[in-house]
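Reopening this ticket.

The earlier resolution said the output was attached, but the attachment link was broken on my side. Pasting everything inline this time so it's all in one place.
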Amino acid sequence: MTAVVTRPGRVPAVPPARVVGPAVSRLALRQVRRGALIVVVLVAGMSAMVAATYASTVGDALDAAALAALAENPAIRTLFGQPVALDDAGGFTVWRTGTALSVLVGTWGLLAATRITRGEEDAGRWDLVAAGRLPVPAIVARHVAVLTGAVLVAGVAAGAALLAVGTSPHGAVLHGVGLALLGVCFVASGALAAQLFATRAAASGAATALLGGALLLRMVGEGVEGLGWLRWVSPFGMVALSQPYAANRVLPLVVLAAVDAILLVAAVSAARPRDLGGGWLTTSAGRPPRLGLLGSVSGFAARRLARPFGGWAAGVAAYYLLIGVLTVSMTDFLADNARFADLAAQAGFAGLGSVDGYVAAMVTLLAIPAGVFAAVRSATLVADEAAGRLTLLHAQPVTRARFLVSELVVTLGGTTALLVAAGFATWAGAATVDAPLGLLAALAGALNVLPVALLSLGAATFAVGWLPRAVALVGALPAAGGFLLQVVADSTGAPAWVGRLSPFAHLAPVPDAAPDWTAAALMVVIAGALAVLGLFGYRRRDLQG
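Inline output:
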């Protein structure tokens, strides 16, 4: 008998940290590159477009008296910020697009931060990475560094776009730096929330609430004379205080940079002492089970929707309550300043001189959060599927068609309720200033944008079946993309057929006019067709995860 001696195979060496670290950074970049590219293009494109068309849209129409009237109106300051340097193309661009672009960059930064940190950790995709030579704080730091670089590129793009169209270098650089620092602030806030909370939903909700609160502080600080100091406790307010193309103040941005540094250090430091998969703030494990709404598929869908809906409804209602409160101030101002009413009409907001026209224009914007809400809820469904949280449900005698239809019906109900909440809040705000706006008129105006929200829901459902990795993006296109297309077409004098591609071009100004039932019915039919195609694809494709 012959003994055979075998030698154990060679155990592969664990890569050193200097190899793993760059690989983690490349992974983070791969996860955010598409979203970052879209943000950079939007920031640069909007800035360049408004500045380039300044001479043709505004020109010399803003004389000293008009500028004084604009600066003295609290409603204008509250909604759009303090109007300064409007006689300059760069200053007008910052005033018109600054808040919108700041919200865009900040929202993307915080949601991306929670997605690629807490979201990846929740899904278990950090387990093997964290088991290697790279500790969790280093993993968090590299992901945050990638996102910080992305928002810095967005700021550089904004400044470069303004420089390219010939505006003042000082103002362009200051605006770009302010936009970048604001983005870094919310990237750090999202990353910090991801360390504090044990779930992605909780972290995203807390960071989004922080952004909404910061924006509200800026609005109150700009609109109320005695509360101007509130701008110093809000990143939006500090960016506004820098006043590009006017005072060109550097101090507010220095303070904001210091706040960013503190938040970045806190986000990385908070990852050190906690367990992988856990957070600083956790729910008690000893509470009794909560079994409400778990008796059916539709009940389960409603339960999953309830908490996110509460946050969305609170934010939307608060904003439209403010819109209602400002009704009289805005309509009186635009009725007395015809030139500004003309400029608003060129931007897609006609009829602002009357209460019904003002409400119709403002609730048109409601289609954007309503459509994004529907898209995000559909994307959450795919995320839960990929994370394995729906595996047991799919193992039950429940067909995919029934499951997806239940989700669709519940999401539709939540979207409709969101519109009703906004309409009621608008009426309540208008009632406090004795504006002649009835409750039914306010609700009719809010529900008038439901077909656009349905297009977003239909597009998101189509993506659930055929493009599960791009549900949020595809679903947001009819609402957010449609509005952007209309603004660009109106501002650049594009051919009429280009503007007609936007669903917003087919919305009647309700309650200032009767609804366009034909256009609404057509949009509903298109949304239904997209949903049916998505259902067909969902039944045939493999489950994610």
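Reporter confirms the inline version is readable. Residues 104 and 136 are 29 Å apart (CA to CA). The chain has a mean pLDDT of 87.
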